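Figure 2 data, in text form.
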Amino acid sequence: MTGAEVPEGADAVVMVEDTERISDLRVRMLQTVASGGSIQAEGTECRAGELILEPGRKIGAGEVGILASLGYARVQVSARPRVAIVSTGDELVEVDQTPGRAEIRNSNSYTLLAQVIEAGGAPTILGIARDNLDDLRAKVSDALSYDIVITSGGVSMGKYDLVEGVFAEYGVQIEFEKVAMKPGKPTVFGWKDNTFVFGLPGNPVSTIVSFQLFVRPLIQRLLQLPDRATSLLEAVITEAVRCDPARAACVPARVWFENGRYQLAPVRWKGSSDLVGLSRANAYVLIPREDGTLQTGSSVRFIPMAEFG
């Protein structure tokens, strides 16, 4: 049978499908077979002491099968970072509620939840923090018990942008509070003890882009995984795009493969609140911080989205 020991004195095996039974004691082989045919010698797949799964390898179905077949019932792995998600703003209502004239549904908590899961983290939504110090303090206090804190909104220059001040109250060491890019300029990053803290902008596309560029690489690093999602590829741009001398841009684009190269066109979108425009994209194109215009046919760099293909 398949997987059985080779009988003593035999040096080849013929599949029963390649034989014809003549009698109880006689079998005709329908094709020739060489010595060693259909036999797997010991050590064919791997040898004692050979490195099979290197550190930093993501454990999937194939890896689980290897570990099981080699007798490893328990292995040491990196823990999934625990990520607390807090959206801020008096204007927010939950997704199953009907917003009033000055309200919007809370989409950021759920886009961040999806991004954290895709990156390999373990997310928890802590709810909406209203635009008052007591509520925001309570949410931030709870969040700081996690490995990573992500807030969205409340980090710009408005009267009720209170997040950075509350971070300071709780002893968060701020490393930067603005980034020369669009969307996502008012992105805050800091840390307290063993917790990493991100204050992301509130506009939905800004939140998604800032997570992709800053939070995802950290999660991948904590998991000891290579971060392929922020690897840069090159494409030929198919229409002219204006640059900004003040800020680099990371904007939604559509990429396809044609004539031996990636081709890229920015999607039509209405700015950093336009999730519908983002849904038409499969990549982010990087527009450099400079004067002038990128002309049609210029080479540009882009970051594939998770579903890029």
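Caption note: The longest strand covers residues 248-258.
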